[in-house]
Specification:
single chain; alpha+beta; 2 domains; two-stranded antiparallel ribbon; 20% helix; 11% strand; globular; Cytochrome P450 2F1; Cyt_P450; metal-binding; heme
Length: 112
C-alpha cells in the first residue's frame, strides 16, 4: 500500500482484541488469557489497550499505575457484589458502529 505523506492513521484494535487466532475465547472475559500453564502472568502481544507503535499513548505507564492504585484502594475498603448474583452479570460489551462501550451495572459496595 502507498500511504500519502501526512496521512492520519488510526489503528482500529478491535479486530486484534477479538481475533480468534490470538485468543482462546475472544468474546468472553477470560483472565486465563494472561496466564501460562503454571498460573503465572504472561504478556500477550495481541493485547494493546493503549494502541501500538512509537506513537502509542505516552501516559500508558502512569495510567496503569493509577488504575492499579485506585483498584487496590477500592478492594481494600469495600466488598463488591451484584444484586442479581454473579451469574446475573453480562460481561459482553455493548457494540456500536464505532467502539465497544461498557454496559451499565448495578453494584453493591459494602464497607469492610
Amino acid at each position: 500500500y502507498k500511504i500519502p505523506k501526512d496521512t492520519v492513521i488510526i489503528p482500529m484494535l478491535h479486530s486484534v482484541l477479538r481475533d480468534e487466532g490470538q485468543w482462546e475465547t475472544p468474546w468472553t472475559f477470560n483472565p486465563e488469557h494472561f496466564l501460562d500453564s503454571n498460573g503465572n502472568f504472561q504478556k500477550n502481544p495481541a493485547f494493546m489497550p493503549f494502541s501500538a507503535g512509537k506513537r502509542s499513548c505516552v501516559g500508558e505507564s502512569l495510567a496503569r499505575m493509577e488504575l492499579f492504585l485506585f483498584t487496590v484502594s477500592l478492594l481494600q475498603k469495600f466488598t463488591f457484589s451484584s444484586p442479581n448474583g454473579p451469574d446475573g452479570i453480562d460481561l459482553s460489551p455493548e457494540l456500536s458502529s464505532f467502539a465497544n462501550m461498557p454496559r451499565f451495572y448495578e453494584l453493591i459496595a459494602s464497607p469492610r
